[in-house]
UniProtKB/TrEMBL annotation, chain A:
Cited PANTHER family: CARBOHYDRATE TRANSPORT ATP-BINDING PROTEIN MG119-RELATED, GALACTOFURANOSE TRANSPORTER ATP-BINDING PROTEIN YTFR
UniProtKB keywords: ATP-binding, Nucleotide-binding, Repeat, Sugar transport, Transport
Highest taxon listed in the record's lineage: Bacteria
Residue stretches making up the ABC transporter domain: 19-255, 267-510
Protein name (record): ABC-type sugar transport system ATPase subunit
Keyword set includes Amino-acid biosynthesis: no
UniProt keyword ATP-binding, yes or no: yes
Alphabetical list of SUPFAM superfamilies matching this protein: P-loop containing nucleoside triphosphate hydrolases
Xref: InterPro entries: AAA+_ATPase (IPR003593), ABC_carbohydrate_import_ATPase (IPR050107), ABC_transporter-like_ATP-bd (IPR003439), ABC_transporter-like_CS (IPR017871), P-loop_NTPase (IPR027417)
Record CDD domains: ABC_Carb_Monos_I, ABC_Carb_Monos_II
Family annotation (SMART domains): AAA
Gene Ontology molecular functions: ATP binding; ATP hydrolysis activity
Automatic annotation (TrEMBL), chain B:
CDD domains: TM_PBP1_transp_AraH_like
Protein name according to UniProt: Ribose/xylose/arabinose/galactoside ABC-type transport system permease subunit
Protein topology in the membrane: Multi-pass membrane protein
Keyword flag Chaperone: no
GO molecular function annotations of the record: transmembrane transporter activity
InterPro entries associated with the record: ABC_transp_permease (IPR001851)
Region (Disordered): 1-20
Keyword terms of this UniProt record: Cell inner membrane, Cell membrane, Membrane, Transmembrane, Transmembrane helix, Transport
Pfam families: BPD_transp_2
Entry GO terms, CC: plasma membrane
Transmembrane regions listed in the UniProt entry: 31-52, 64-85, 114-137, 144-163, 183-204, 235-253, 289-308
Major location (coarse): membrane
Annotated localization: Cell membrane
Amino acid sequence: METAIASPGTEERRGDDLISLHGLRKRFGGVHALRDGSLDLRRGEIHALIGENGSGKSTLLNILSGQFRADGGEVVLGSATLTPAAAQAELAQRVAIVTQELSLAPDLSVGENIHLGHSKRRRPWGIDWRSTYADAREAIRQLGVDIDPRTPLSQLRLDQRQLVEIARALVQGAPVLILDEPTSALTDEAVEPLFTVLRRLRDQGTAVVFVSHRLDELLGLADQITVLRNGRTVAARPRAAYTRQLLVSDMLGYEPEHYTPPALEVESTEGILEVRGLSVPGALREVSFEVNEGEVVGLFGLAGSGCSEAVRALAGLEPGASGTVDLGGRDSVPASPLEAGRRGLSFVPGDRGDEGLALEMSILDNLNLGGPARHSRWRRIRRNAEAEAGRAAAASMNLVASSLSAPVGSLSGGNQQKVLLARCLGVRPKVLVLEEPTRGVDVGAKAEIHRILHQARDAGLGILVTSSDLEEMLVLCDRFVVIFDGQVVAQARRTEVTETRLSHLASGEES
Amino acid sequence: MNESTTAPAPERAPQPAVDDRRSAPLWRTLLSNRAAVNVAGIAVMVVIFASLQPNFLTTANLQTLLSSITILWVLALGLTFVLLLGGFDLSVGSNLALSGIALGWLFTSFDLPMVMVIVLTILFGALLGGGVNGFLIGRMQASFMVVTLGTLTLFRGLVNLASDTKTQPVTSELLDNLAFGKVAGIPITLILMVVTLLIAWYVLRFTYFGRDVYAVGGNAKAARLAGIRVSRTTVIVYAIAGGAAALGGVIQVARLGAASPLVGETIMFDAAAAVLLGGTSLRGGSGGVGGTAVGVVFLGVLSNGLAVSGVQSFWQQILSGCILASAAVADKIQRDGWRSLEFRLPGALARSGGRARADTSG
C-alpha cells in the first residue's frame, strides 16, 4: 500500500484510483473557501483529511459528496476527467457522508432508517418489511456489530446511531464513505469499536475519508493523510511519513511553540466556591468539592458520568438539582443562569452555536449580551463604551475578525469561542465554569484559549472546567475531581496523577 | 463602526488569515437590502399609477391612502416586535376589536375625560397581549401558535358577548380630531404614524430591551445563559403587540365614530404580510420596524393605486398574494443562494451548464 507521494499535483500513483480532485476552487461571496483543493482517494484506504478550522475542509468534503459545486478545477472519476459541474451528480451517487449532525429520523426503526430515501423494497401493495429488515440486518452484520433492526432509533446511544448511518451508506453501495468528526461526540470506549468497523470496511474495499481534530487517533487510524491550510492542499503523504510534530507544522504552516502551562506559583487555600451534596436526579449523587481562588479545577469523568450535569447545575440549568452551592454566603443551587451570574458565577457552555452565541448578531452585541442585568432595560445602550471595551477584549484575546460589527457566525470556531470567553470574563466573575472549552477549535486557538485561562487564573479567578479531552485537562488543570457514575471517586493534584491513572479512576477501576 | 480589530499578530506565530472577507459590491448590497428593493417597488408603482391615473397623485387621494394604512401601520409595528422575538400573534385583529368595544364601554359607562379613556384602552389592549398571550407563552412556555390561535377566537367571542353584536356610537371631538384633524396642515394620523415609528425604532435600536428582543429571537438559549430574562422579555413584547392593536382599535373607533364588533377580522393577515414583506424573518432575530413601515406603504400604494385605477378588489388580493409569495422565495435565494433551492431547470436549459473537459482542453 505504501506508494511514494510527493506534493499534490506532481505525484504518480499506482493502485486503484477511485476519485481524484485537482485544483478545486470555491468562493462564497468574496470569500475564497477553497483555493486549490486536491484529494486522491483509493480503494481500501483510510484517508485522513486534516486542517484547522477555516482551512477549507468542509468545503472540500461538500464538493466531494456532491453537495456543493466547485467553481473550477477538475474531478477524475476512474478514467474520465470531468468539470466540477459535470461530476456533481456522479459524486453525490458515489460518496456517502456521515456528519456530526446525524441525518436520521429518531422516531423510525433502525431498519427503516437504513433504507430511508432509497428503499428498493417496494411492492405494488406497499413496503416489503421482511426483506427491508433482512437487508438492514445484513448491513449491520457486515459492520460486525449487533443491533436489532426493529429497535426504534431513539433508543440507541449516539455511537450506535453513527453505526446505523454507516450501515445506511453501505446499503446505498457507495464506494466512498466520509466521516466528518465522528469521534468528537463519542466516549473513549466507543471510539475503538468504531475504528474496528472502519478498518473492516477498508479491508472490504471501501475508501474511507476521516476527519478529526484529535491528531493521535488520526495517526493511529489513517493510511494516507492530506493536509489543508488556507484553502489549499499543502501536503499529502502516507501515514508512515508522518510524525505528530510534522503533522502539526504542516497544518499550521509553522512550528508551534509547545504550550507549557505555567506552574501554579502560590497554592491558595482561599475557598471561593464550595459545593456540598450536589445532586441531580438520575445523574449526580451527593457530590462535594471546592474551588479555590487562583486555581483551575478539572471535573473529569467519562461521558454520562455526571460531570456535565454538575457544571450545568452550578450554572442554574438543572431545575431539579439540590444541595448547597456556597459562593460567599451559604446558599442553594442557582435557580437560573441569571441568579448564578449575580452570585458571581459565569458559565461557558460547551455548544457555543446552540447555547453560547446568537450567530446572526454582531461580535459586539454578542460580547455584551445580557447587559441589562446591570442596567435598566429601557436605557440607551452605551455603544461607545461597549465598542471600546470590545476592542480591548478583542486585542487581549487575539481575536481575528474583519470588524466588530461583523456577525459572530462569520468567524471561525476558535474565534467564536474567544468571543464567548470574552463575554463570560467581561462580567468579572468570581468563578468561571467551562464545559468543553475548546470543542471544535483548532490547535492554534486551543493553545491561546489555554493561555487566556491561565492568565485569568493567575489574576485570582477560580476556574472549574470539564472536558472529555483528557490531554486538554492535563494541560489546563491544577487539581482534579474525578467523577464516576454520579459520584466523586477521587481528588488529586496535577502533580500526583498521570494520564493513565486518571482514565483508570474515571472508569471506576480503582478507588 | 468600521474599526479594524485584527489584533497585531504576535511574533511567535503567523495568524491564519481566516476572515479575509471583502465587502460585496454596491448593487449586491442594495439588492440584499429588502427595504431598498421595496422602496424601488413603491417608486415604480407610483410612476405607473400616476401616469395611468391623473387622480392618483392628488392631495385628496394621498390623504385617502394615508388614512387607509394608519391602523395597519400601528398594528404591524407592534407585530414586528413579536416576529423579531421569533413568535407570532394571530390575535391582534380580535384584540383591536375588543379594545374598541372596551373604549365604547368606558366612554358610555364612566364620566372620564377622553384622553383618559384612550390611555385606559391602550393599557387594556396591552394587558390582553401581555397578561394573556405573554403570560401563557412566556411564563407557561406554551406554543405561541396555539395560544394566539386560541385567543384569536376567545377575544372575538368576548367582543360579541360584550357588544351583544351591536355597534355602539361613540362621539367625541378628540377622537374626531385624531382621525380627521390636522395640525399646521399635516394630518394628525401622519404625525401619529411618524411618532410611533420613531419610538419603535428607538426602542429596538438603542435600548437594552431592543437588543434583548433580537437576542431572544436569534438564540433564546444563549440569551438566557447570558442573563437575559427571556420570559419577561416575551411578556413585554406581547404586551407591546397588544397595546399597538388597542391603539389601532382607538383609531378604528375614531374613524367610524362607533365601536363596532365587526372590525379587524382580516387585518392580522395584512399586518403579517407587511412585516414579512418588510424583511423581518419568521425565524426571529433579524429585521426591523423600518422595513415594516416600507412594507405597509408598499401594500397601501398597491391597493390604493389599483382601486383608483378601477381594478376590482379581488385583483388586489391576487397581486399582493403573488408579491408576498415571491418575496418569500427572494428571501430564501438572497440568504442561501440559488443552489439551496430544491428546484432545477428542466432538460435542455440545465444541460447548457456544460459537460466534460470543454473548458480545460478546448
